[in-house]
Amino acid sequence: MEFDFTPVITYFPTLLKGVGVGSLVAVIVAFMSIVGGLLVAVISIYINKIVSWPLRFFIWLFMTTPLLLQLYFLYFGLGEWILIPAIFVGILGLGFHYMAYNADIFVATIKSVSNGQYEASRSLGFGHAATIFYIIVPQAFIRSIPQLGNNMILMVKDTSVLSAIGVAELVYASQYAISVSFRPFEFFIVIAAMYYLINIFMELGQVWLERETAYRR
Amino acid sequence: MNTERNKDEPMIEIRDVHKSFGDLEVLKGINLTVNRGKIVSIIGPSGSGKSTLLRSVNHLEVIDQGNILLDGVQVNRPDMKGLQFERHINHIRQNMGMVFQHFNLFPHLSTIDNITLAPRKLKKMPPKIARELGMELLNRVGLASKADVFPNWLSGGQKQRVAIARALAMEPKVMLFDEATSALDPELVEEVNQVMQSLAEEQMTMLIVTHEMGFARDVSDWAMFMDGGVVVEECAPQKLFSNPDQERTQNFLRKHLNS
Amino acid sequence: MDFNLMIEVTPLLVKAAWITIDISIRSLFFGFFIACGLVFLQSFQFAPIRWFARGYISVIRGTPYFVQLLLVFYGGPSIGLRLDPITCGVVVGAFNIAAYMSEAIRGSIESVDSGQVEASRSLGFGKVQTLVSIILPQSAALMIRSIGILAIVLIKNSSLVSIISVVELTYQAQRLIGSTYKPLEIFTLSAFMYVIIIYAVMGIIELAYRRAMRYTTL
Question: What CA–CA distances, in Å, run from A84 to A26, A73, A74, A89, C19?
Answer without folding.
Answer: 19, 14, 11, 7, 33
